[in-house]
Write a structure and sequence with these properties.
2 copies of one chain form a homodimer.
Chain A lengths: L7 E5 L3 H10 L5 E6 L11 E4 L5 H8 L4 E4 L6 H5 L11 H7 L2 H10 L7 E4 L2 H11 L3 E5 L9 E4 L4 H9 L4 E5 L5 E9 L5 E3 L3 E6 L2 E7 L4 H18 L3 E10 L2 E8 L9 H4 L4 H9 L12 E8 L5 H4 L5 E5 L10 E9 L2 H12 L3
Parallel strand pairs in A: 1-2, 1-4, 2-3
Antiparallel strand pairs in A: 5-8, 6-7, 6-8, 9-10, 9-11, 9-13, 11-12, 12-15, 13-14, 15-17, 16-17
Helix pairs in contact in A: 1-10
């Protein structure tokens, strides 16, 4: 046992996800080194932070030198930057999975190839493509940028015929995809981990509620044996396709009792934050275990959990911590901005009813 | 909400306890700054580390400047060093509690004054004191240094008459105390927190097993309603006596169905490590909450927990993490030495029987 024998994980992106990865890694004796554009990124409080642009290949290679494995906390890391680390340190998840998840069109094509239902969709490059897509797939629908969309950004809803021109005006001129609207009953997601040894661990499905395109509340578990089996089958297909290593998240709509894949994220996910207190092993610890080739930990739930995001504003700690059973997560961001995720709270209870009571109190803190 | 508004906690001592305090503080948006003699202390991985001697008052004052509150992870911090911070930053627990717990004689006198049963004892300064103490309190008994004893160090068992001279030879020449032997059925401890607002939270009693004078295993809870009430009454007496702020631990013997106080520690305690996974709020988070005047968190248990110390040697992570439900805590120490606490594992299960099964597997890792 010596310091030198303990692995170091390099994390590209030092946001809240990277920070929570490091907080899960530290008790295992594992240290993290971060790479980010900004010097006051939240990860810098829990590990060394190398500052550089995400496309500065030389700086990235320097960062990765001496690290045992590299991962990322952000799916829009340039694929070329990840590929440039070849020969310096292994990167998990691998570049091919990252690449496919960065483009909504390729992502949907993959789902289709693997037999996973998706919303009807069509690529849109020209205004005429959009007219044709609306005619073929109907309205309402959503026009989305193929790349760099998150938290509802890069999207335009199309209901009436007049919306077509407005949507094109807002987003036209870049690769787009038009999606037919799914009349879903609920939104759920599945988080799973696949390790370097090929071991897979699935968390239970959870139910998500969004506000203004941003995740607001997650309730876990969404206990539904049939949909859980369906979700795990879809997840396994994607994991095995890529021989994926790390945590992967797939968001689904539930439409007439079946799952329709919405999108995937090749990383730990906001809808898995509840696992820190609500599962035997958190998504963060399982990601670290997976990329280091360690055995995965149990995903068994501890009761019924809810997660509430604090967006744009954090509650006063004295008030938040007075709430029964509330676990506060302040990401330590130096600046509050509207629409910015600043923290979250997790509530765990023995029954769904008690969880709802605790959740109600937590929602008042927002 | 800005970085400046978030408190910083100064921790004198950057061992595993300080490190676990920081890991509990970080999710609350609280950062820790450490002070330690050695530059590679475990706390340095999770916060700024100021290196200096524990009696370097100037350096300590420099360390405490700009910190919102100072605490310590080690009870042998010189009391003068703590007193020297007056006017720089508040220190919790306060110097008077620290002082009294540093001396076994004063500690026992306090217990007696507060009506808390202790082993029969007598101060020993001269060889003749020891002869008299043995005559009056009988043998077997234990001769202990009044100061700086921990993990069984600074103690000599006296069984036969011949042991008296041996014990005196080993320990004589410093302030000592002779304790009559308590024929205890079990060893238990109580961890509790009292906040700056006077709020008190008690964890359940736990049962401890020592090996070679070092804590080896803790099982939680030790469910015994009568003894829990008794322990809380004793704890409250000590907490209120000092108007104590922070986590305090009292170790007891159970002798013929009643509690006999052995010693107290003015800090988070090894027998409370199980609370990270086994209680709703860990002892570390409650200590941070207490010293910052935040509401205390629930001490409710999550099932039945066991904690196993890794002393002198850590298991291979790949082997340890394969054990069902095992939570590994590697303190990140740079050097393994015999008798040195390097890490621990926590097991949590729904029933005591399942806990014992998991514990059995964990014990094989040592």
């Amino acid at each position: 046992m010596s310091g030198a024998a303990r692995p170091t994980v390099g994390i590209i992106g030092a946001g809240q996800l990277g920070r929570m990865l490091a907080l899960a890694a530290l008790p295992l004796g594992i240290r993290c080194r971060f790479y980010d554009r900004v010097a006051d990124a939240p990860g810098g409080h829990v590990g060394e932070l190398v500052v550089g642009e995400f496309d500065d290949l030389g700086r990235l290679r320097e960062f990765a030198r001496g690290v045992d494995v590299v991962t990322f906390d952000w799916e829009n890391v340039p694929v070329e930057s990840v590929r440039a680390l070849k020969g310096v340190a292994p990167v998990y998840p691998a570049a091919n999975a990252l690449e496919q998840s960065q483009d909504r069109l390729y992502e949907k094509a993959l789902f289709r190839d693997l037999g996973i239902p998706t919303a009807p969709y069509a690529p849109v490059d020209l205004a005429s493509d959009l007219e044709q897509a609306c005619a073929r797939l109907g309205r309402p629908g959503i026009l989305k940028t193929r790349r760099l969309g998150y938290d509802g950004k890069g999207q335009a809803r199309i209901r009436a015929a007049a919306d077509v021109a407005t949507a094109w005006g807002a987003l036209g001129g870049q690769p787009l995809v038009y999606e037919g609207f799914v009349r879903f009953e609920r939104e759920v997601s599945l988080v799973a981990a696949r390790s370097r040894r090929g071991e897979i661990a699935y968390y239970p499905l959870v139910e998500n509620a969004h506000e203004h395109g941003i995740l607001a509340i997650t309730r876990a578990p969404y206990a539904h044996a049939k949909l859980q089996r369906e979700a795990e089958r879809h997840m396994r297909a994607v994991l095995e396709h890529f021989r994926y290593v790390g945590v992967l998240t797939i968001e689904f709509f539930v439409e007439r009792g079946r799952l329709v894949a919405n999108e995937m994220a090749p990383r730990v996910h906001n809808s898995g934050h509840w696992t820190i207190e609500g599962a035997e092993t958190s998504q963060f610890e399982n990601h670290v275990r997976a990329i280091l080739g360690l055995p995965l930990g149990s995903t068994t739930t501890r009761g019924h959990a809810a997660m509430v995001n604090f967006v744009g504003r954090l509650p006063k700690p004295a008030r938040a911590l007075a709430a029964a059973g509330l676990h506060l997560h302040d990401y330590g961001k130096s600046e509050a901005r509207p629409g910015r995720k600043l923290g979250h709270a997790t509530l765990v209870a023995a029954t769904p009813a008690e969880r709802e009571r605790r959740l109600k109190a937590a929602l008042k803190l927002r």
